[in-house]
Design brief:
Blueprint: H1 2-18, H2 27-33, H3 37-43, H4 48-52, H5 55-58, E1 62-69, E2 73-80, E3 85-92, E4 98-100, E5 125-135, E6 138-151, E7 154-167, H6 169-172, E8 179-182, H7 196-202, E9 210-214, E10 223-227, E11 235-243, E12 246-247, E13 250-259, E14 262-265, E15 270-274, E16 281-284, H8 285-295, E17 298-299, E18 305-306, E19 318-322, E20 325-329, H9 331-334, E21 335-338, E22 341-344, E23 346-349, E24 354-356, H10 358-361, E25 365-369, E26 374-380
Parallel strand pairs: 3-8, 4-7, 15-24, 16-23
Antiparallel strand pairs: 1-2, 1-10, 2-3, 2-6, 4-8, 5-6, 6-7, 9-10, 9-25, 11-26, 12-13, 13-14, 13-15, 13-19, 16-24, 17-18, 19-20, 21-22, 25-26
Length: about 375
């Protein structure tokens, strides 16, 4: 209807001028003769696409640099409020809520991090809605509010986020990041809060409903999160697309996990989520015990699963069979060596679910495609 109305108005404007002055050319003819019509129509306020979806926004692909902290976590810096208050956040595909520490929080963990102060932001909007989240290694409670969130050059206005009121000390007190920015589906968002990525897409701040991770290895720089597009310079070869088995988490179906062609876990198939907010590869107890035994990992005094460093060269890759394709993780990928100590990159969960964390994602350029509900994996560029 809008386009029909627009075309009618254009036709009417030409008729108004042509009837009394038949020798006068229309503005469209004059612009066409000068070769300016195309440029005018693209930039004119009468062009609905230019008006509501500015060219800069619709072509925008944001690249957010991530800091690799000891191959344990990857975080980026964002701003909240007017003027922006900066926070380091983990972009977590294993959750959907966005929150940061706040001045409302008096847990000891909050005092180790910067705290958001609503009184210092002219764009802050409070609510009375509370929420709570329990992660695998910690928990928090808080209250929801709205403000402008700045990621790179993009300003995400009216974004709902959480201000922490309590944080568990055992985990969150000692992290190098301040908060968590969830990038899973809104179906698992606590209190129905709209995730940041959904808000970016709804406001047409990105051109494609997709984001992707390139995670560096061995504590090197260069890790990147891409919003709204894919930079082909970060991968080589083709992309393997894996359909989601369930929306909420980025959940997929695995066929098996093998070593030297022998099944060591996930025999007969299993479910897994691709999770940028988890450091290791995590699975059910019996399954992980089978893998730890196969690589000779034994629990040390610190509770870590330790491997004899001299045996690493004899260990084969561990292959994850997904959607008819093989995705191997090399020995140096699943065993972390620090001086004379070598530890396994696998750990256990009481869930009947595998979590493919950073140990897996470091091996592949990983694409999260919301438009088609699928995950893409490609060989990272060297």
């Amino acid at each position: 209807m809008k386009w029909l109305l627009l075309l009618s108005l254009v036709a009417l404007s030409e008729c108004i001028f042509k009837i009394p002055l038949k020798k006068m050319k229309s503005w469209r003819d004059n612009l066409r003769e000068r070769g300016l019509l195309k440029d005018f129509l693209e930039k004119s306020p009468m062009n609905l696409t230019a008006k509501y979806f500015p060219q800069k926004s619709m072509n925008a692909t944001l690249q957010e640099s991530l800091v690799n902290y000891l191959d344990i976590e990857y975080h980026g810096t964002i701003g909240i409020g007017t003027p922006p208050q900066e926070f380091k956040v983990v972009f977590d595909t294993g959750s959907a809520n966005f929150w940061v520490p706040s001045v409302l929080c008096y847990s000891p963990a909050c005092h180790y991090h910067p705290r958001f102060d609503p009184q210092q932001s002219s764009s802050f909007k409070a609510t009375q809605q509370t929420f709570s989240i329990a992660y695998g290694t910690g928990s928090m409670t808080g209250v929801l509010a709205y403000d402008t969130v700045k990621i790179g050059d993009i300003e995400d206005t009216n974004q709902i986020f959480g201000l922490s009121q309590t944080e568990s000390n055992t985990f969150l007190a000692f992290t190098t990041f301040d908060g968590i920015l969830g990038m899973a589906y809104p179906e698992i968002s606590e209190a129905g809060a709209t995730p940041v990525f959904d808000n970016l897409w709804n406001q047409r701040l990105i051109s494609k409903n997709v984001f992707a991770f390139y995670l560096s290895s061995n504590e090197k720089n260069g890790s990147v999160l891409m919003f709204g597009g894919i930079d082909s310079s970060y991968y080589s070869g083709s992309i393997s697309w894996i359909p989601l088995s369930s929306k909420g988490y980025w959940q997929i179906t695995m066929t098996s996990i093998t070593m030297n062609g022998t099944v060591v876990a996930c025999d007969g198939g299993c479910q897994a989520i691709v999770d940028s907010g988890t450091s290791l590869i995590i699975g059910p107890y019996n399954e992980i015990d089978s893998i730890q035994a196969a690589i000779g990992a034994i629990q040390n005094a610190n509770g870590e699963m330790e491997v004899n460093c001299s045996s690493i060269s004899d260990l084969p890759p561990i292959t994850f069979n997904i959607n008819g394709e093989e995705f191997p993780v090399p020995t140096k990928g699943y065993i972390k060596q620090k001086s004379s100590s070598c530890t396994s990159g696998f750990s256990v969960t009481d869930l009947n679910l595998w979590i493919l964390g950073d140990v897996f994602m470091r091996q592949y350029f990983t694409i999260f495609d919301r438009e088609n509900d699928r995950v893409g994996l490609a060989t990272p560029a060297k």
